[in-house]
Specification:
Length: 411
């Protein structure tokens, strides 16, 4: 289909979550991608590539990302985009941004420092290192030393959070590649972003180093794998306040909520999933029973599990008020109410984008609430999100922010 658009201009279609891409023939030639290149890759990578269709997904993407992203993130294109993103986040009222396990190569961070690193940036940008490649590449006794070498690449208003790492279980929600315990209605299967044995080794290395571990998870079978590893490591080497974070929390079962509460895990959830996907996934691939109950925030509150909300932009809007609205209302794009028992209160949603978000990063002593001794970070709103009608929360006007004492009204 992409070849039909052009046989001469290289075209790459990138799925919005950056978990999947499709090249036309001209793009394959442009990036020198051929069968010999694929044959030299590990089996787990080759299994997620279809060269005939120019299709690369999940681990298969890792083979082509270096060449594609080097072209995509050229400074002439990337720096203006970062400037727009900085203005967008400020307009959303954000005073702290955290990117767990994103594209944090030293080369890209050097470019991000040019925009986010200067003293006029209206927020601080924190990175959490992606621990996958380090655990795969280096001997166990060198993994931590090597990952900490990343830290010096951030500077100014950008920095790495030390002793925190991101790992990955199963595939993307928007691709329906999450690992589901009851499978899919059409018979296709999910994918692993880290094979179970690779994940287990990496989890153990970072656990033994005392790191806080954040884990990307979307399917309930993916969550089973994460909780199995967490439980095994607690039994083997108990740790107080490990604060393991389940990130995204797409699909889960009630028994898993109870289990993660008992294991002391916390959740950073994407509340936009049911809004954008529940209607479609009720019909395609998943079925209504599971689709309506995705992102079980209500169950987390009843189980007394600490939860925060994130956008994973561009998976969801990078606007905290809209995330609050998604969690409080759960009204789909089709106007339906998805899983009413999974709604949470406005107060709990406000906590989830402030103090509980800070807690998930071990930064609750510095930010997240307005008390003496913390950084003077405030978002100034025209209305109170706890007293307006729930359906109007996302439309509240933002006057501006105060960031570490600097008065920063919106233009």
């Amino acid at each position: 289909m992409v070849d039909e658009i052009s046989s001469t201009i290289p075209i790459v279609v990138m799925q919005r979550s950056l978990h999947e891409q499709i090249h036309n023939t001209a793009a394959l030639e442009y990036f020198d991608i051929d069968q010999a290149m694929i044959d030299g890759a590990p089996e787990s990578v080759r299994a997620q590539i279809n060269l005939v269709e120019g299709h690369f997904w999940e681990q298969g993407q890792s083979l082509v990302v270096p060449a594609v992203f080097a072209d995509l993130f050229r400074s002439a294109r990337y720096l203006p985009a970062l400037e727009k993103l900085e203005a967008y986040w400020h307009a959303a009222g954000s005073t702290l941004i955290a990117e767990p396990g994103g594209i944090v190569s030293p080369a890209l961070i050097a470019l991000q420092n040019q925009v986010f690193g200067d003293a006029n940036t209206p927020f601080r940008m924190y990175y959490i290192a992606d621990g996958r490649s380090f655990a795969r590449t280096y001997p166990e006794d060198e993994v931590i030393t090597e990952i900490e070498k990343l830290y010096v690449s951030a500077q100014g208003m950008t920095e790495f959070i030390p002793e925190q790492v991101k790992l990955f279980s199963d595939g993307a929600m928007f691709s329906q590649l999450m690992q589901m315990s009851e499978g899919y209605l059409d018979g296709h299967h999910g994918e692993w972003l880290m094979e179970p044995e690779v994940f287990a080794r990496a989890f153990r290395i970072y656990w033994d180093a005392g790191y806080q571990i954040h884990v990307h998870q979307n399917g309930d079978a993916g969550l089973d794998m994460v909780l199995d590893n967490l439980e095994a490591n607690i039994d083997r080497s108990p740790r107080e306040d490990h604060r393991t974070v389940i990130v995204h929390f797409g699909f889960s079962r009630p028994d898993q909520v109870k289990r993660l509460a008992g294991l002391g895990a916390i959740v950073s959830a994407n509340p936009f999933y049911p809004v954008v996907l529940a209607d479609r996934y009720s019909e395609e691939g998943i079925g209504p029973e599971r689709a309506q109950e995705m992102v079980r925030l209500g169950d987390l509150v009843r189980a007394d599990v600490s939860l925060s909300l994130h956008s994973d932009t561009p998976m969801a809007s990078g606007q905290p008020l809209r995330l609050m609205s998604n969690a409080v209302n759960r009204i789909t794009l089709g106007g339906n109410l998805a899983g009413p028992a999974q709604r949470i209160s406005a107060e709990r949603a406000l906590r989830a984008v402030t103090i509980d978000a800070a807690y998930s990063l071990r930064m609750e002593g510095e930010v997240g609430s307005i008390i003496p001794g913390k950084l003077a970070n405030f978002t100034v709103l025209r209305e109170n999100p706890l007293t307006v009608s729930p359906e109007t929360i996302e439309g509240i006007e933002i006057w501006g922010t105060i960031h570490e004492g600097r008065l920063l009204p919106l233009p």
